[in-house]
Amino acid sequence: MFTNKLLTCSALLIILLLLSNAVFSQKFISLPNVGSDASLEQANLFTSSSLTTPTSSTTGKPIITRSTSSITPPTTKTTSTESPTTTTPVISTTISPQPYPQPSVGTWNTSCIMLQMAAQLNFTYEAKGGNFTNGLYNIPNNASVEDSECKSQTTQFIHLIWGPETSKQSILMYFDKSNDTTVLSSIQIHLTLLSEDFPDAMENQTVQLIHKSDGEFKTPEKMSYHCTRVQKMNMTETLDAKQLIGWISVSHVQVEAFRMANGTGFSVAHDCDSSETSDVVPIAVGIALAALILVVLISYLCARRRSTSRGYMSF
Ligand SMILES: *[C@@H]1O[C@H](CO)[C@@H](O)[C@H](O)[C@H]1NC(C)=O
Ligand SMILES: *[C@@H]1O[C@H](CO)[C@@H](O)[C@H](O)[C@H]1NC(C)=O
Ligand SMILES: *[C@@H]1O[C@H](CO)[C@@H](O)[C@H](O)[C@H]1NC(C)=O
Ligand SMILES: *[C@@H]1O[C@H](CO)[C@@H](O)[C@H](O)[C@H]1NC(C)=O
Ligand SMILES: *[C@@H]1O[C@H](CO)[C@@H](O)[C@H](O)[C@H]1NC(C)=O
Ligand SMILES: *[C@@H]1O[C@H](CO)[C@@H](O)[C@H](O)[C@H]1NC(C)=O
Ligand SMILES: *[C@@H]1O[C@H](CO)[C@@H](O)[C@H](O)[C@H]1NC(C)=O
Ligand SMILES: *[C@@H]1O[C@H](CO)[C@@H](O)[C@H](O)[C@H]1NC(C)=O
Known about the structure:
Blueprint: H1 2-29, H2 37-57, H3 64-69, H4 72-80, E1 106-109, E2 114-126, E3 132-138, E4 144-149, E5 155-162, E6 169-178, E7 181-192, E8 206-212, E9 219-220, E10 224-227, E11 231-236, E12 244-256, E13 269-271, H5 274-314
Bound molecules: 2-acetamido-2-deoxy-beta-D-glucopyranose (8 copies).
One 2-acetamido-2-deoxy-beta-D-glucopyranose binds near residues 178 and 179.
């Protein structure tokens, strides 16, 4: 009778721990940005409390091993973020083509748009033989602002140009505002393939690359959009075309359109990742705390029941 109760109690405890364990590993693995300081801090907070409380309150069952296994998902994640730096290319003695350089970050201002980004294109063009091939191209960070639409309160753009006087290259970025939200509406790029950049390209070739936005760079009014990681956007030849002819990869983006003319610097940043993690972490911590309280409660009740039944036997 008494052993029966003890068994059900400990079985209940183990099931609970397993459950919270499963919830946890899922929550933390699904975090989109593991490197974020906030999520790591929260994870550490939980692991330290889960280590101390259950051991002091439980009845000597080997539950510690269960709770330590719940720590492993976050810790292995943190170590894995460091590992890529250790891999170094060994085959550098052979004369091989240099990898195309990473794009550098540029900053551009107009009276209504402030833009900071690094951008690289990967697109298809026609080679001399008539075959199509892929090429990479970085938007130079010394491109200059050609013009900008600032009067409209619904659609604004910034127009950057670079390259030799006779064959200007350009990028246009359009922004829309509605419902107190600013969003990128399209990117339009016009390239003349110069022989110094694309020696194998068919002569006098121009390429038009258009990205129709899928809601990128979305941010509330009077805030700037911020995103450090690389974002890849599909590009087609015309606005309606279905066939992809390339991608633009943007990183280190901070952009703000529909600015007041008298503002200085970027407004408060709306980060592309913090908005996603901000509600996942509190939910995970909440579930953990609830599970912890349940565990403590059940072990307390079990311990009390055992001690009272012992008391009966000794009398
Ligand atoms: C560019 O696109 C081609 C075709 O999809 C791909 O094979 C190549 O890896 C891409 N290059 C980079 C640097 O992304
Ligand atoms: C074009 O592609 C075809 C098939 O892939 C190949 O046989 C031919 O040699 C290529 N031509 C040139 C000029 O590279
Ligand atoms: C931009 O930089 C490139 C090399 O980085 C240089 O060749 C070019 O003259 C520069 N253009 C301007 C307008 O400064
Ligand atoms: C947001 O804008 C859309 C049309 O652009 C409109 O249908 C919708 O009602 C707006 N929502 C709010 C909350 O204003
Ligand atoms: C390219 O343009 C130049 C100058 O506009 C011209 O002289 C040349 O013939 C053109 N090449 C081809 C292949 O059309
Ligand atoms: C970009 O193109 C790929 C391949 O066609 C497609 O799977 C993906 O959904 C496209 N992304 C967007 C945002 O259109
Ligand atoms: C600057 O902007 C604020 C609103 O952000 C406005 O109240 C103020 O009048 C502006 N000052 C000037 C000199 O334009
Ligand atoms: C852009 O504007 C900000 C604030 O108005 C200023 O601090 C910065 O120097 C400007 N940058 C350029 C490249 O004009």
